[in-house]
Amino acid sequence: MYASREDIGYDFGDDSKVGSKPIKPNPNIDGGWAWMIVLSSFLVHILIMGSQMALGILNMEWLEEFNQSRGLTAWVSSLSMGITLIVGPFIGLFISMCGCRTTAIIGGMLNALGWILSAYASNVHYLFLTFGVTAGIGSGMVYLPAVVMVGQYFQKRRALAQGLSTTGTGFGAFLMTALLKYLCTEFGWRNAMFIQGAISLNLCVCGALMRPLSPKDLHEKYVVRSDSEENRAKALSHSTETIKSNGVLSEEPEKKEEVANEEVLGSVQHIEIGGKSGSGRSMYGLRLLKSVSQLTVTVRKGFALWYSSYFGAASLFTNRVFVAFIIWALFAYSSFVIPFIHLPEIVKQYNLSRQDNVFPLTSIIAIVHIFGKVILGIISDLPCISTWNVFLVANFTLVTCILTLPLMQTYIGLAVVCALIGFSSGYFSLMPVVTEDLVGTKHLANAYGIIICANGISALFGPPFAGWIYDITQKYDFSFYIAGLLYMVGIIFLLIQPCIQKKQPREKSTEEAQV
Question: Keyword set for this entry (predicted)?
Answer without folding.
Answer: Membrane, Transmembrane, Transmembrane helix
